[in-house]
Each structure stands twice: as C-alpha cells, then as structure tokens.
Amino acid sequence: QRLLHRRADLLAHGARDALADLGLARQAAASELEDHIAVVFEAMRMLVSGDGERSPAEIAEQRRFFDRFVMPWTPDCCAAIENSSIAQYWRNVAQFARCFVGVETAAFAIA
After folding, report:
1. pLDDT per residue over 76-99, tens digit each?
2. How many Å apart are CA 16 and CA 44, to the nearest integer?
3. Backbone phi, then psi, for 51, in 5-degree steps?
4. Beta carbons of 100 and 49 less than 8 angstroms apart
5. What is the pTM of this model?
6. DSSP of 36-79, one letter per residue?
7. Can you give the C-alpha Rg of the chain in angstroms?
8. How close are the terminal C-alpha atoms of the chain, in Å?
9. Which of 91, 108, 94 is nearest to 44 (CA)?
10. Is 78 exposed, middle or buried (0-12, 13-18, 19+ CB in 10 A)?
11. Contacts of 77 (CB under 8 A, 6+ apart)
C-alpha cells in the first residue's frame, strides 16, 4: 500500500512535467506510465550520459531528479520485488536497481 501511495505521489509531484522538460513524452501505444521504475531509470540514464544530441545534465539537475523521482520509492519497490515468492527473475533486477541507487547516492555525496 505504501509503495502504491509513493508511486501516485510521483505523478502528483510533476513526474510527467519533469519528463516533458527533458523532452520525454509518453507514446500513445506505451503501456508504462510515467511512474514506472523503468521510465524513471531511463530518464536518469539520459541525465547522466546524455542521449544523441543531448549532453549529460549538470550534477545539480541529476540530483534533483534523483531525489524527487527515484529515491522516494525505489528502495520500497526493490524490497517488495525481492520479498516476492514469484518474482524470481525480477529479484535480480531489483538487486541491480538497489546497487544503482547506492552508487548514485554515493556519487552525489562526493560531487
């Protein structure tokens, strides 16, 4: 329940607008919503490494997006997946996501 509330907060706190500001918009045929973990990780990837014509974002912009749209719910999401008895493959993905969040947190601490 807490995880669903946090995901709903993402849309309420401007995830759609923040993604649009990055030039990302939901395609009509897409099944993932703006609060899907894959979408926020893809946006974070684009902020960190750039994408085609887009240069990497400044660290401050990366941190703002991370603090606002990744950190509030990713640990709970990963824990829920890791504790699921039927999410065998996704358990590894959740562990990888947890590592990514740890690396990003540490990087922001020293930036």
Report:
1. 889 999 999 998 999 999 999 999
2. 14
3. -160, 105
4. no
5. 0.79
6. SHHHHHHHHHHHHH-BTTBPPPPHHHHHHHIIIIITTTHHHHHH
7. 14
8. 34
9. 108
10. buried
11. 3, 37, 94, 97
